[in-house]
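Second attempt. The first submission of Metallophosphoesterase had a stray character pasted in from the spreadsheet, which I only caught after the job came back as garbage. Lesson logged: always re-copy from the clean sequence file. Corrected sequence (386 aa) follows.
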Amino acid sequence: MKLVNRILGVVLALLLYGGLNFYIGWHGAVWLKSLGVTGVMGLSIYWTSFAVTVFGYILALVIKGPLGRFLKVIGSFYFAILQYAILFLPILDLGLWIASLAGWSVRSHTTVIGTVVLIVFALLLLWGSRNNWSTVVRQHSLTINKDAGERKKLRILVASDIHLGNIKGNRFLKKLSKISKDVKPDMILIPGDLLDGDIEPFKRNQMNETLKSLQAPLGVYAVLGNHEYYGGAVEEFIQLVEEAGIKMLQDEAIEINESFYVVGRKDKTAEASQYGGRKSVTDLLETLNHKKPILLLDHQPYHLDKAEEAGADLMLSGHTHRGQMAPNHWITSRLFELDYGYKQKGKMHALVSSGYGSWGPPIRIGSRSEVLQIDLTFTGNGEKGN
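This time the job returned cleanly.
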């Protein structure tokens, strides 16, 4: 019975997805007809190409090799078009319907209307691409009221949600390495989703070799995100990353020069039984010396209150991408107490980054590709600020 329900669910989802895309594709066909493309051959080529684009990401799950990679890339870009088409086309159609009731000849202006819509979408995607590839460095200066021995200051570079795969690869990593050399951090932290899911492009393009260029005096530390689990090759990926000189923290803490702790939690995805579960933040921090600063990496920014109560001084997360494409931030802001930026929760500083990379379409609208430069000052004088 469960199998039947799953099959029915998949069929219904595909029908809904197909119906929405037929609605979008119909607009393109109407515009092409206004340009004189009326023959069976021309429209057949259009609908075939459109269908391949629409189902490209799904087809790439079963088609491997260069063709599969190509389908995944065009399918990823199409997700951006799909979102904004669903948002804008019904509004456009409603406006045109009202205009036709008022006596305006919509049909005679189809070519102009379709061309304007096409230009608007192109500009939107160009702007989103610029936001995706043009990385900004967000700077935060924070104070932790704890003694870190002889260390009074600490500069951290944070790069979350890199999503290495078919779209983001070695060139993207080299750019991050250059940013790191400019920032000159004492330590680099990666709060999850270093991998986009499938480990194949990571291995094929030997990205672990490029990862070696990420270096800092006090080391490079990372945690797993949900996408590493989706790929199904967690242990192999961890081995490759650690061979590149990056320590992957899995529900464990490491003390740096007897001055402060870096603590990494397994992702929330690991709570599923097939992944063996994960420790609570209380269990993870209770054995540490709480007189020393505690820096916590937790990919998904849930339960800031529990992290603060457990004794974390700084919690670093990603995952949300700040919605990546507006107005999705309206959703993330309701799912998480803090879906982007900075918040002081009791005595704890919390930072959620929109991420260096992106999932799906390499498009960002209403968000930017970013890394965080965090300058910590350790005072131990009873005053804590930011």
